[in-house]
């Protein structure tokens, strides 16, 4: 039986240990909290301090940076990038190759479309079709 973790050296020369999540085999860093009902697909990386709630899904090749929060039943599509400290609301959907910046906020039920960017520190609320709502 193979080991259930992998050690990876970061840009600062520090070695981080990642375990393979039971639902999907994505890599979860020590210090991240992922609900057992969440799915983190193979090839996805979840960094230290991240919290992923019940029923959330993180697609293949997605990267969730340190201290981000992913709400219940949120969907992070393949190859999306969620910046450090970002918060994704419950049932929000983040599209393929979308980028949510550092400390950005995506409201409950919002849709960030494929290849769309949310700037660092922005707060975004959309309807389920991705149309931006007035602040």
TrEMBL record:
InterPro entries attached to this UniProt entry: Hexapep, Trimer_LpxA-like_sf
Keywords, A to Z, come to: Transferase
* Record keyword Transferase present: yes
Official protein name in the record: Transferase
Q: Does the keyword ATP-binding apply?
A: no
One Pfam entry for this protein is Hexapep
Give GO MF terms, alphabetically.
transferase activity
Task: Give the top-rank taxon of the lineage listed in the UniProt record for this protein.
Answer: Bacteria
